[in-house]
Amino acid sequence: MQEFTDLLNNQLLFWSLTACILAQLLKIVFNFFSSGEIRWAVIFETGGMPSSHSSLITGITSGLGLELGFDHPVFALGVGISLVIMYDASGVRRSAGLHAVQINKIANQLNQADKLNLKETLGHSKLEVIVGSILGPLITLSGLKFFGSPLDIIHSISRFF
């Protein structure tokens, strides 16, 4: 039972995951404005606006900076990991998605009966990564500053009942 209480008291984990989930939910909104249709499945897809990977990792990193200090070596490690993840999302994974588009076209031209259909939305544009990297700290730092841990929130709510 103590482990579960400790988990509920981990405010950095909670708020960075909240930022990630919010980024995934926002994909429905952005997808609606770009395509004119509501697609719930976009929540479970990679790629798209905003980058939930960027949101998660920058949320964790900014929270580490706030809690441990921005001069702490763990914060420096978080910045390094954040940069690698964001570079990968907008570089390697995006390129792989663009390659998949071309491979699918070639495969369909060669053999229309057998659809290869590689996943094409793997990475992010630079803008999608930037928006995700702003969303992460915005949600995480606000949550840490104003609300605390899930356990704190539960205690605050229980006072009203």
Radius of gyration: 19 Å
Shape summary: elongated
Main beta-sheet strand count, sense and barrel state: none
Poorly predicted regions = none
Distance from first to last alpha carbon: 24 Å
Going by helix content, strand content and strand pairing, the class is mainly alpha
How many structural domains can be distinguished in the coordinates? 1
| SSE succession | HHHHHHH
Number of helices: 7
Amount of beta strand: under 5%
What does the average pLDDT come to?
87
In total, how many beta strands? Answer: 0
Helical proportion, percent range = over 70%
Question: Can you put this structure into words, describing what you see?
Answer:
The chain has helices at residues 2-8, 11-35, 52-68, 73-90, 92-110, 126-146, 150-158. It has one domain (2-87, 131-158). The protein is mainly α and 161 residues long.
